[in-house]
């Protein structure tokens, strides 16, 4: 297995790592409830997709003691 003869400089290391940064995921707003969702996904808050009800979301309620 090959071993480097000299160490890489900081500039060379940084140039190699220039494309390793993280890109934030794109978000879009739900047309019904204005919650931020991933594109092409059903809204987890209201259950709508492209203006149509696709999934009924049950709302949990807290029981008073």
Give an overview in words.
The relative contact order is 0.12. The strands form two sheets. Strands 1-2 form a two-stranded antiparallel ribbon. The protein has a two-stranded antiparallel sheet with strand order 3-4. The model has no long low-confidence stretch (mean pLDDT 89). With 65 residues, it is an alpha+beta fold. The protein has one helix at residues 10-16, and strands at 28-29, 36-37, 48-49, 52-53. It has a domain at 24-59.
List keywords for this structure.
two-stranded antiparallel sheet; elongated; two-stranded antiparallel ribbon; alpha+beta; 65 residues
CA gyration radius, whole angstroms: 24 Å
Write down the secondary-structure element order: HEEEE
Q: Which structural class is indicated by helix and strand composition?
A: alpha+beta
- The average pLDDT is 89
> What is the topology, as strand order, of the major beta sheet?
1-2
Concise summary:
The chain is α+β, with helices and mostly antiparallel strands.
